[in-house]
C-alpha cells in the first residue's frame, strides 16, 4: 500500500510503499479515506512519551475515517504500530471503530475525533458539566479550543470565557458561543485583571487548559484567594502549546480551591461511543463546526509543518 511513512524520528513522514497490515484477533481492517494531522500525531513521530518505543519505519497518524470490509464508514483510532492512520489500509481495535452518520464528511469526521473528544469526554465523564456552569477555555483559538467553546455551550454551560492570542480567531469566538473573549496578546497585568474580573467572587466551575505555561501561571495567580468554602475550580490540563511547565503558588491552589485534573486515561468504551454519537449528531444538526483544509496524502511531506491557525489539516487518501 501507499502510506505516510516515518523513516527518521523527528523528520516529517514521506509518501511511499509500506507492507499491508493483517488484522489480528479483535481488530478490523480499514480502507482509509481521511486522516487528520493533530499535535498528538506529530508527538508520536518524535516524543518517546507518545511513541511507546515505536521503531522506524512506521506509518504516521493516530485517527481517521475509512470503510470496513462490509462498506460501513467508521471513525477509528489506529493504535498498533507500525500501522498508523495515514495509509491506504490500517487496522483498529474493533470497539474503537464507530460508524459515521450520513451528513458528516470524511474530512470533518476525521478532524473531529481528537479535539472533539478532548473536551466532550471530560465534560461527560470526570466533570459531569452542570447546566449553568461558568467555564474558561485557555487556548480557545486553536482547533480544540474552538470546539471546546461550542461543546461547553451545547452541553449547557451558562457562561463561557475564551482566552487566546490570534486576533482573527478571537473575533470568531462569540459566534461560536463565547460570552467573553480575553486576549492573551496584551500586558500580563491586563490579562490577570480580566481573568480576575470574570472570576468575580466565585471563580470558575471548570477550566479547560490547552496551553499551560505562562498563561496558566497568570490565570492561577489571578484567582480570588477566598474561595475555600465556596466550591471547587476544576482545572483540566489538556495541552501545553504555551510551555511544558508552569509554576503554581501553593497559596493560590489552597485558597482558590483548585483541583487539577490530567486527562491521560480513557473512560469506558460505552461513554466514548455515546459521546461520538452525540458529537457527530451535533455536526449533522449544525451546532458543531470545525474548519478543515483537505490535502492529498501524497503531499504529506511538504504539508506536515504547514501553519493552519484554527483549522485542521486533513490528509485525503
Ligand atoms: N489531551 C487531549 O486529549 C488533547 C486533545 C487535543 C489537543 N490537545 C493539546 O491541546 C493543544 C492544542 O491543540 P489544538 O488541536 O487546538 O492545536 P492548534 O489548533 O494548533 O492550536 C494551538 C493553540 O495553542 C495556542 N498557542 C500556541 N503557542 C502559544 C503560546 N506561546 N502562548 C499562548 N498560546 C499559544 C494557539 O494560540 P493562537 O492561535 O491564539 O496563537 C492555539 O490556541 C496541543 O498541545 C494539543 O496537544 C490535547
From TrEMBL:
Domain Enoyl reductase (ER): 10-315
Highest rank taxon of the organism: Bacteria
One matching Pfam family: ADH_zinc_N
SMART domains xref list: PKS_ER
GO MF terms, alphabetically ordered: oxidoreductase activity
SUPFAM superfamilies on file: GroES-like, NAD(P)-binding Rossmann-fold domains
Protein's name according to its UniProt entry: Enoyl reductase (ER) domain-containing protein
